[in-house]
Amino acid sequence: MRSALAPQVKLHEVWAWSMYDFANSGYTTVVITAVFGAYFVSVVAQDAPWATFAWTAALSVSYAAILVTGPLIGAWADAHAAKKQLLLLSTIGCVVFTALLWLAAPGAVWLALGLIILSNYFFGSGENLIAAFLPELADSQAMGRVSGWGWSFGYLGGLASLGICLAYITAAQRSGQPAALFVPVTMLITAGFFAVAATPTFLFLRERAVPQPATENAWKRVRDTLQHAREYRDLRRFLLCMLFYQAGVTAVVALAAIYAEQVMKFTTERTIMLILVVNVTAALGAFAFGYLQDAIGHVRAIALTLVGWIAMVVIAASSHSVFSFWVAANLAGLCMGSSQAAGRALVGYLAPQSRVAEFFGLWGLSVKAASIFGPLTYGAVTWSFGGNHRLAILATGAYFVIGLALLAGIDVRRGRQAAIDTLQRTG
Question: What pLDDT is stored for residue 272 in this prediction?
Answer without folding.
Answer: 82
